[in-house]
Specification:
This protein has 13 helices and 13 strands. Helices cover 41% and strands 17% of the residues. The protein has 361 residues and is of the alpha/beta class. The strands form two sheets. Strands 3-2-1-4-5-6-7 form a seven-stranded parallel beta sheet, sandwiched between helices.
């Protein structure tokens, strides 16, 4: 009989978002535990890269089946003698809170700013969330100080236990990547943006900004898919800007070094994995001026005003004309990752949280 403690990790599904990428990488490191992964739905974009000791899908489908998912998870927890449960993302956390017995500790990682997230704006979901929070003493982990602070302010929850644990990037893996030496379009100053084509990423801002750059030697490539794809493509067609939607590419982060500049215009972020990748790949960055980007990058990026596209345009031109500035901020960004946001930093913090939680069980 194994003496290892058993951790159940629950998440909505295994798409290629920041929370999912983080979980898949963490599971490879947590060999001192038995790791069971439960998803609400079966979608898996990782294939054989995703490894755990046991996988189970609740097949919840729509939220109408929420009570059935809770019942199935509660039964599964009893059967497998779980020592600790770690939940990620809104729906999975809601199911976990209603299903987890009071004697089993529950850790929840908050990946986004809840005061802006649409999930938290539906009154019936927020009500369920509030009820479930009072039912079970949840240990809250925030991926940034902003995320952690806003969680308790917005929901008016009294903290039980809370931890700050930054998202990470695997610097060693990035350094081993075989990336082309040449830029993707020699002679043109090319920008890359990575992110789902949905509201928070704010790609409409970039398209509008590029209307002022039609006669300049700039081109933007956006990697990702989402509900706004047709709308964004129509805006590009109507304005005639040099912006290309590249669709979804597996491990799009590996393409970053082929571009002159990484750009992100998000209205809000938790703690961006693709920004960490750009930092680790020593690519200069032009980012929206939001708290999480400031926390993440400090003075290793150039920030633009989301209320003024002319600010973006002027800073882009200044950055493109100054190779020394590009190299200085890029080198500083990589060093900031090495000092603060590596896989090793994250695993050290996570193991500490798990150990303290299990010892106080």
């Amino acid at each position: 009989m194994s003496s290892k403690k058993t951790i159940l990790h629950i998440i909505n599904y295994l798409g290629r978002g920041g929370a999912e990428v983080m979980l898949v990488k963490v599971l490879k490191e947590l060999k001192e535990y038995n790791n069971i992964v439960v998803t609400l739905n079966p979608e898996n974009h990782f294939g054989e890269e995703f490894k755990c000791d046991l996988y189970y899908c609740l097949n919840m489908g729509s939220f109408v089946r929420f009570p059935f998912a809770v019942f199935k998870l509660r039964k599964f927890i009893r059967k497998h003698k779980i020592d600790l449960i770690h939940s990620h993302l809104f729906s999975a956390t809601l199911v976990a809170r209603f299903a987890t017995p009071a004697n089993i500790p529950l850790i929840t990682t908050i990946h986004t700013n809840v005061s802006i997230s649409n999930d938290y704006k539906k009154w019936y979901l927020t009500l369920l969330k509030s009820i479930s929070y009072k039912m079970h003493k949840s240990i809250i982990v925030g991926v940034s100080s902003e995320v952690l602070e806003q969680y308790f302010i917005y929901l008016k929850y009294k903290p039980y236990k809370k931890y700050l644990l930054y998202t990470f990037t695997d610097v060693k893996e990035i350094e081993n990547l075989q990336t082309p030496a040449n830029k993707i379009n020699e002679g043109v100053f090319t920008l890359i943006a990575i992110g789902a084509l949905r509201y928070p990423k704010n790609h409409h801002y970039l398209i509008k900004a590029f209307e002022a750059l039609k006669n300049d030697n700039f081109e933007l490539h956006i990697y990702g898919v989402g509900v706004l794809q047709n709308e964004l493509q129509q805006a590009i067609n109507n304005s005639g800007v040099r912006v290309i939607l590249k669709g979804e590419v597996k491990n799009a982060g590996r393409l970053i070094p082929q571009y002159n500049l990484y750009v992100m215009s998000s209205e809000f972020e938790g703690f961006s994995l693709s920004v960490l990748e750009a930092m680790a790949m020593q690519t200069p960055m032009l980012l929206s001026d939001i708290p999480s980007f400031r926390e993440q990058c400090a003075d290793t990026a150039i920030f633009f005003d989301l209320k003024d596209t002319t600010d973006f345009v002027s800073k882009l031109k200044k950055l493109a004309s100054n190779k020394l500035l590009q190299s200085e901020i890029a080198a500083a960004a990589k060093q900031r990752v090495i000092n603060n946001f590596t896989l090793q930093h994250h695993m050290e913090g996570l193991r500490k949280i798990y150990t303290e939680t299990l010892n106080n069980k």
